[in-house]
Write a structure and sequence with these properties.
720 residues; 24% strand
Length: 720
């Protein structure tokens, strides 16, 4: 039986809008359900009755990520002795079929269809209750519903429109509920839309309701009637890479990852062809997150290279140009999170946008390099040169907060996030005794990201014909490499310290962070094998994946967010580090563990994270309550793991794609169709000792072999 994550609700979404309901379509404000757009809950309560009774749910499914169907029938109904029902005026259960279909675009389109299967006419009263609280997504998430403004609802019977408006100072939102194609005249009474439905035998009755959020001046769009499939997909199509293999479940895992990635993409339509950025996850992270969009861009570069271009475009527009302590904002910094709800708009939270992330600015440079390596387009480097240089300036002058040569973070905002690496929960970073270190905190992986960013920026300067600047950055990278390996190496454990605290005291904590150092290339070959062995020891390796924290640590809790759980994207990054270190078998084990977890989850869908419990006899991956599903970097981890097994790397300078497959016994061969690079695509057939490219229109030559990695004194070829 598949493992489900969280409560049994139905979710549909498109772009920045999503809807969550109970399986019977209802919504109650005290739950996390509702219709949300741009960080505001526009519909908080929903119910439907037939003659005052709840219809009987038969089943409900999501058809596509943007559509759902609910099938009901009427319960036993008392129609009265004057009706054409049985002698006692009772309409038997199941006499009338009731179907509700919902689709979501910018607004929600509902189709209500009743069919009379009784042998006589029936007269029914259909009542629909729709409530709006306009709650901020943070208030809903924290179960702290506070009405801060004024709310009014008006019914306009002439045009069949219910309008609810909310105002709090300059923050204004509204919801229009429009009645269209109604089989009978709509009324509004007791807070409900009311329809009198008179149906002859076999007759059908229909009405459309449109839920239209009002944000700004442009009216929201909806799909057409009964548009459960197809229509939303063709608005801004992205052709995904297709994986073909004889493995029994991997194609389904890949397809679900593609579906989740498609579901989470947000589109900036002001850019020709659209700029695509992934929302971080549903339900709480349907917005742009700097770190998440950049990590997803790296993970999915071989499946959706468009995300890297979209992330660069979107984040460059909101890159900081000034200093604001309350937003944790500094010149050149890439934002952590961009919100547009009531709390952010009125500056009750500093999230419009918020810049409290220590890694996104470094990752911006890295993703620019990725985008170049897969396109070979030097114009791309010129286009984002100023943004990359601003990010580099932040790295050199703000990222190192105390001048010791290391990247650190320290919250300045009174309402900001304390931990500003990817493990950003308050208790994620700990000393050996479980205590929380004082900031500034220098995490080990931040030094790896900085090292990688410096080398990539050096190569960018080489490509822009500025060798002196390139040489300076390469020298800075060498100094960081040397200093990091002197200060952060933990000889007794054969790994790196988790970080340094305010007093430069090492955190003697074994955690997954060191695996990111392997991936960045900051680990010397003679130490890389020891780090791999330490991460694959029993206290870190669960069988499903590598835990975020050792089971020997006093803070370990397998059900926690960051202190012993398993994150697919973390494992994909680490597996890349294993492959770079030449430990192919360990990389295969990580991939097998994550894929084994995926095949046990409902719909083969990887959640944001899951429990760190061991994979023993009879085990299954235990969900983390509250995990986002779908979640972008969990879905993209599937693409990254396949690319690692295939050994795919690109070099933009020479327009070469290196393929060095090291496929495990459980995956002896595979085919990737529509693998995009340069200005085209290709099909790759891979086996352990064989690579075949078919229909290559990319402009990249394909080489069967390892990516050459020059010594540090030379211009490095970027890892991608």
């Amino acid at each position: 039986m598949p493992v489900t994550v969280g409560p049994s609700t139905l979710t549909i979404n498109h772009d920045r809008q999503f809807l969550i309901s109970q399986p019977n379509a209802t919504m109650v404000a005290q739950d996390d359900v509702g219709f949300y757009a741009s960080d505001t809950r526009f519909v908080s309560g929903y119910g439907v009755t037939v003659n005052g009774r709840l219809p009987r749910l038969l089943d409900a499914i999501t058809v596509e990520h943007f559509s759902a169907r609910y099938e009901f029938m009427t319960p036993e109904l008392h129609l009265g002795p004057s009706s054409d029902a049985s002698a006692d005026g009772i309409l038997p259960e199941g006499s009338v079929g009731f179907r509700l279909e919902r689709t979501i675009l910018e607004g929600v389109h509902e189709d209500y269809d009743l069919t009379n299967y009784a042998t006589h006419p029936v007269r029914l009263l259909l009542e629909i209750q729709i409530e709006s609280d306009f709650a901020d997504v943070f208030d809903v998430r924290n179960h702290r519903l506070i009405r801060r403004g004024d709310l009014q609802t008006t019914w306009r019977p002439r045009i069949g429109e219910l309008r609810s408006t909310y105002r709090n100072r300059s923050f204004r939102r509204a919801l229009l509920v429009k009645v269209e194609k109604a089989g009978s005249k709509p009324e509004y009474a007791n807070g409900r839309l009311v329809f009198l439905c008179e149906l002859a035998p076999r007759a059908e009755w229909h009405v459309c309701l449109k839920w239209l959020p009002v944000i700004g001046t442009r009216p929201a769009r909806t799909l057409h009637c009964h548009a459960l499939t197809g229509e939303a997909r063709v608005l801004h199509p992205l052709a995904p890479v297709e994986l073909v293999t004889s493995h029994p479940t991997l194609p389904a895992i890949w397809r679900q990852a593609v579906e989740d990635t498609e579901a989470l993409r947000m589109v900036d339509t002001t850019v020709k062809g659209g700029a695509f950025v992934p929302a971080a996850g549903i339900p709480w992270f349907v917005t742009v997150f700097g770190r998440d969009s950049l990590v997803v861009s790296m993970e999915s570069i071989s499946a959706f290279p468009e995300f890297a271009l979209g992330a660069l475009h979107t984040l460059a527009q909101v890159q900081a140009t000034d200093d604001d302590a309350e937003q944790d904002k500094e010149p050149g910094k890439i934002p952590h999170e961009i919100r547009s709800g009531e709390l952010a708009s009125l500056k009750l939270l500093p999230f419009a946008p918020y810049y409290g992330t220590a890694d996104a600015t470094l990752l911006f440079i890295i993703v620019l390099s990725y985008a170049y390596q897969w396109s070979g387009d030097v114009a791309l480097l010129r286009r984002y040169r100023r943004n990359a240089e601003a990010a580099l300036n932040w790295l050199l002058h703000y990222g190192d907060r105390d001048g010791d040569g290391f990247q650190e973070y320290s919250r300045r905002s009174s309402k900001g996030i304390f931990n500003q690496g990817w493990k950003d929960s308050w208790d994620a970073i700990r000393h050996a005794d479980g205590s929380i270190p004082e900031a500034p905190i220098a995490l080990c992986e931040l030094q790896g990201y900085a090292f990688d960013a410096l080398l990539r920026m050096a190569e960018i300067y080489d490509l822009l014909k500025e060798p002196e600047r390139a040489a300076d950055l390469r020298e800075r990278a060498r100094r960081l490499y040397q200093q990091f390996n002197e200060v952060f190496w933990w000889e007794a454990e054969g790994t790196y310290y988790l970080g340094l605290d305010k007093e430069k005291r090492a955190m003697e904590t074994v955690a997954s962070n060191a695996g990111h150092c392997l991936a960045s290339g900051i680990v010397p070959p003679e130490r890389a094998g020891r780090v791999v062995d330490r991460l694959m020891a029993d206290d870190m390796w669960s069988g499903w994946g590598i835990r975020t924290l050792s089971t020997k640590h006093p803070g370990y809790n397998p059900y926690s967010y960051h202190c012993g759980s398993i994150w697919p994207h973390d494992n994909a990054t680490i597996a890349g580090g294993f492959r770079r270190a030449g430990r192919h078998l360990e990389a295969q084990r990580v991939a097998e563990g994550i894929f084994a977890a995926a095949e046990r989850f409902d719909a083969y869908r990887l959640p944001e994270l899951f429990s760190g419990l061991p994979r023993d006899a009879g085990a299954f991956p235990v969900p983390y309550l509250g995990a986002n599903v779908p979640q972008a970097w969990a879905a993209a981890a599937v693409f990254r793991l396949i690319a690692i097994l295939c050994g795919i790397h690109t070099v933009g300078r020479t327009r070469t794609m290196y393929i060095n497959p090291d496929l495990p016994d459980w995956l002896p061969s595979l085919t990737l169709r529509n693998l995009r690079a340069g200005h085209g695509a290709m099909e790759l057939h891979l086996e352990r000792g064989r690579v075949q490219a078919v229909g290559n229109t990319t402009g990249f030559k394909v080489v069967h072999g390892r990516l050459p990695r020059p010594a540090l004194v030379e211009a490095p070829l970027a890892r991608s």
